[in-house]
């Protein structure tokens, strides 16, 4: 009977043996012994109730270190092709955490992907059969994203989906769905997994299981955020339209409010990567902007969600330009941004912080001209006054939000000049007692440094009196150290 102490001692002994004789032959000898031990432990867990608990709770850290050490020294061909029988014996019964480290090491080995697609395809299929494991599935999904171009791998994954088609299996299915999101991160070509997109869409459209519905929609969110081409694929293939139709149905059904919220999030995140969504679904844009203008009538959750979604929808330069064109003949965009600016100063501490964070996100992507126009619509001098007044107050969370806001705004000289021209800002910047914590003092110095930099590089826009610049530079200088005492000089 193998106990945890015996197991750990054996692993440590093998590790020392390998380090003293670091060769592929010795490595394979140890791996073979490890496979045998894993198989024996699995049998003990099936037949003995008492020791099984002890065995199941083994710390796998030392084991994973040993495996990564050995596998790292073995070539991809030797590991996956020449000794694939050993891997095929190891994979089905391997401890989940140990297998996770093995898969990660294999994925990062040079040439491993091409070998898994050809001569070691059986290993890839064996790994695909464990993609639904709770502790291993995430790492296996990353590997599967590289292998789904192989039809046999796809067949195995389809088989896994068919075997887990009940309502109680929605969590297992979501782990297979995650392969689509992982694939989107490494490639914009999703033709090989179009079947998987169709399966995910079926879960979104199926209103019988709301949790599975929301989980599937989260997968589409990850795909949309992975890049413009992937977001365009979702739009052109009809996925976005289907989600919009489900949203419209949910909007009329009080018991499906979560689906409307998640659907709004999906459309806004898709628009973040593909602004064409805005012109394709103009009613949706109007509705979200109306929520921003009526923010004081929304619940806390709805208000925070509305601003987060609006910021994502307006994230890119293309999206801002599209909205400028969509609302050039009305005041809707002006009024919406004005309401967003007013919301920065209204509500609880959390509401103010979250609203500022959303507005900050809007300025992450803009041109100098767009930034100036949108800042003026948000309130211009009034918002400048709110920001300067807020940073003087003893609220750490709000201070941090203001500093993040300024860090983003001061990328644009035409916006920064409105702060430099505001006397209260310069007075605060020169006040050596305005910040008590090291973190906030550091952020303040960053802001001052940026103002000095803008005055020197963009002096025609950001005009700062030379005397004030000199005082700001003096502020940044470290304080003089006191003269050493006589005893210290003697030492």
Automatic annotation (TrEMBL):
GO cellular component: cytosol
One GO BP annotation of this record: proteasome assembly
Listed InterPro entries: PSMD5
Protein name per UniProt: 26S proteasome non-ATPase regulatory subunit 5
């Amino acid at each position: 009977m193998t106990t945890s102490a015996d197991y750990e001692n054996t692993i440590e002994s093998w590790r020392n043996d390998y380090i003293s004789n670091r060769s592929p032959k010795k490595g394979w000898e140890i791996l073979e012994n490890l496979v045998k031990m894993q198989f024996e432990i699995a049998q003990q867990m099936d037949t003995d109730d008492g020791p099984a608990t002890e065995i199941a709770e083994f710390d796998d850290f030392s084991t994973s270190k040993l495996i990564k050490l050995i596998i790292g020294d073995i070539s991809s061909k030797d590991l996956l092709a020449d000794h694939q029988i050993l891997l095929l014996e190891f994979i089905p019964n391997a401890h989940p955490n140990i297998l996770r480290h093995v898969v990660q090491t294999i994925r990062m080995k040079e040439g491993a992907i091409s070998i898994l697609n050809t001569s070691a395809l059986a290993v890839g299929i064996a790994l695909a059969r464990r993609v639904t494991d709770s502790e291993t599935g995430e790492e296996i999904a990353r590997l599967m994203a590289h292998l789904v171009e192989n039809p046999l791998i796809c067949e195995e994954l389809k088989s896994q989906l068919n075997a887990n088609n009940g309502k109680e299996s929605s969590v297992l299915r979501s782990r297979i769905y995650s392969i689509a999101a992982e694939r989107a991160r490494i490639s914009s070509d999703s033709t090989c997994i179009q079947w998987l997109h169709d399966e995910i869409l079926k879960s979104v459209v199926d209103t019988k299981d709301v949790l599975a519905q929301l989980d599937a929609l989260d997968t589409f969110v990850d795909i949309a955020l992975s890049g413009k081409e992937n977001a365009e694929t979702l739009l052109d293939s009809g996925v976005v339209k289907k989600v919009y139709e489900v949203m419209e149905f949910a909007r009329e059904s009080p018991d499906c409010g979560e689906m409307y919220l998640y659907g709004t999030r999906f459309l806004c995140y898709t628009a973040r990567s593909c602004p064409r969504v805005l012109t394709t679904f103009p009613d949706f844009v109007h509705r979200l902007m109306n929520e921003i203008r009526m923010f004081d009538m929304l619940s806390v959750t709805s208000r925070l969600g509305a601003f987060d979604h609006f910021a994502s929808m307006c994230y890119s330069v293309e999206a801002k330009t599209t909205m400028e064109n969509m609302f050039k003949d009305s005041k809707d965009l002006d009024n919406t941004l004005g309401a967003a600016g007013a919301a920065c100063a209204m509500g609880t501490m959390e509401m103010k912080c979250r609203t500022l964070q959303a507005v900050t996100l809007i300025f992450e992507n803009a041109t100098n001209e767009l930034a100036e126009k949108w800042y003026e619509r948000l309130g211009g001098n009034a918002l400048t006054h709110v920001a300067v007044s807020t940073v003087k107050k003893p609220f750490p969370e709000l201070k941090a939000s203001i500093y993040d806001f300024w860090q983003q705004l001061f990328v644009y000289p035409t916006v920064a000049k409105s702060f430099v021209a505001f006397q209260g800002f310069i007075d605060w910047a020169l006040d050596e007692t305005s910040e008590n914590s090291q973190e906030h003092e550091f952020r303040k110095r960053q802001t001052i440094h940026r103002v000095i930099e803008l005055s020197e590089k963009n002096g025609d826009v950001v005009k700062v009196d030379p005397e004030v610049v000199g005082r700001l530079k003096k502020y940044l200088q470290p304080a003089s150290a006191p003269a050493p005492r006589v005893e210290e000089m003697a030492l």
